[in-house]
UniProtKB/TrEMBL annotation:
The keyword Transport applies. It comes from Acidimangrovimonas pyrenivorans. Pfam families: ABC_tran. One of its GO terms (molecular function) is ATP binding. Belongs to the ABC transporter superfamily. Keywords: ATP-binding, Nucleotide-binding, Transport. Residues 9-228 form the ABC transporter domain. InterPro entries: AAA+_ATPase, ABC_transporter-like_ATP-bd, ABC_transporter-like_CS, ABC_transpr_CbiO/EcfA_su, ECF_ABC_transporter_ATP-bd, P-loop_NTPase. This is Energy-coupling factor ABC transporter ATP-binding protein.
Length: 229
């Protein structure tokens, strides 16, 4: 059931085509639960659905809105996006510089920028990385810095596209511990089905459509059975 205290992402008649090929077709959804997972085969359209949430992708038809606001700026303000590969997200050579990037674009005063960075580094135990070169970080450290770079902007929703793909078991567990503690709504695409245990809702995307939608204890076994036939 949708939590009325949380932001609601609404998809109305959303279709996406690329080069004349349909990627998503006639998607109608309201996403307002605390933790939502998205599963499906490679090429099913699930990553496109995730990218629509904050305006990285734009629908060919239909609208995507957050709390009724469908303009791209509203989506970008409300919804942060974490890429599968943190190298696609980390821009600056020093960790602190990378965390400052989005905040400077908001026109925040220097003392608030500093306070936000201090707080996010402390919250996730990343203080030792403040002055590190980003290209020298481990894969797990990069993913945490990428996540911190999104969270420092204080979005209301966090969307993650396969965030554990490049991580070892220890770093996967660390990432999931952080995600469980977040106050924000989390929407996560994942092939690692065990990571969706305890989520409120799971969407199964296949062939560009919503094939199933419900609690993980029902949707995930049905998805596995369908994919192993």
């Amino acid at each position: 059931m949708t939590d009325t205290t949380r932001p609601v992402l609404s998809f109305r008649g959303v279709s996406v085509s690329k080069g004349g090929r349909p990627i998503l077709r006639d998607v109608d959804l309201d996403l307002g639960e605390r933790r939502i997972g998205i599963v499906g085969r490679n090429g099913s359209g699930k990553s496109t659905l995730a990218r629509l949430c904050n305006g990285i992708e734009r629908p060919t038809q239909g609208t995507v809105a957050v709390d009724g606001q469908s303009d791209r700026k509203a989506l970008r303000r409300a919804v942060g996006f974490v890429f599968q590969n943190p190298d696609s997200q980390i821009v600056y050579p020093i960790v602190s510089e990378d965390l400052e990037f989005g905040l400077k674009n908001l026109g925040l005063p220097k003392d608030e920028i500093r306070a936000r960075i201090d707080a996010i580094l402390a919250r996730f135990g990343l203080e030792p990385l403040r002055d590190r070169l980003t290209h020298q970080l481990s894969g797990g450290e990069k993913q945490m810095v990428a996540l911190a770079g999104v969270l420092v902007m204080q979005p209301r929703v966090i969307v993650l596209d396969e965030p554990a793909t490049l991580l070892d078991l220890w770093n996967r567990n660390r990432l999931m511990t952080v995600l469980r503690e977040l106050d924000q709504t989390v929407i996560m695409v994942s092939h690692h089905l065990d990571l969706l245990d305890g989520f409120d809702r799971v969407l199964h995307i296949g062939d560009g459509t919503l094939l199933d939608d419900g609690p993980p204890e029902r949707v995930i076994p049905a998805y596995v059975a369908r994919e192993t036939c």
